[in-house]
Request: fold
Amino acid sequence: MSGNRLDGKIVIITGGASGIGAESVRLFTEHGARVVIVDVQDELGQNLAASIGGGKASYYHCDVTNETEVENAVKFTVHKHGKLDVLFSNAGVIEPFASILDLNLDELDRIFAVNLRGAAAFIKHAARAMVEKGTRGSIVCTTSVAAEISGTAPHGYTASKHGLLGLIKSASGGLGQYGIRVNGVAPFGVATPLVCNGFKIEANVVEENTLASANLKGIVLKARHVAEAALFLASDESAYVSGQNLAVDGGYSVVKP
Reply:
């Protein structure tokens, strides 16, 4: 594959300071993109941008639950680079497992505020910028296998990702007239800080559990695999793909043990 699959593209990656987001920042810049890292983890984001160097990445502090900050992040990107080609809406949170009988509705509101409302805000303002500039852009959102099936994640997270997938499908219908594509990338269990800290579990345990559950054997799911799928959806190689949810799950969601 070409080493410049995003050559000249301007990209926003939310939740870009760590995990899947950070891997995507590295990969996208390797393929010629200039990336604005959006996160609330200031030190991690700034250090990541500095480590890439060459002006290929910059950091912008933004809480995705605050629409004004979301709008300003998009404005910052367009002012700095003149346009916006790709949004990778990757920011997310997860709650501990609990019975539906003990569902914490305040926690549910927080999960939806980040995973669904935050994505909606970024889709809204990124798409506005793309339409204004006449850009045939690509919007990619991190969903989950939990957006397709239940039982793999806590109730709030599962519900928010189901909602996000619905938003992706709806937005793809609304933005197609402008040449803007909207897709999801749906990973299985990846040993990211989100998962490890959220479930208080070691990375090797996450990887062992995923490997044991997935249909595809002999390979351990890494954040890089998800970033590579997002790269495909962000690039012109997927120019006629929209409204889809690309599973990166070793066949788990279709061939369950």
Summary: The two ends are 33 Å apart (CA to CA). The first helix runs from residue 19 to 30. The helical segments are 19-30, 42-52, 67-81, 105-133, 155-175, 193-199, 203-213, 223-234.
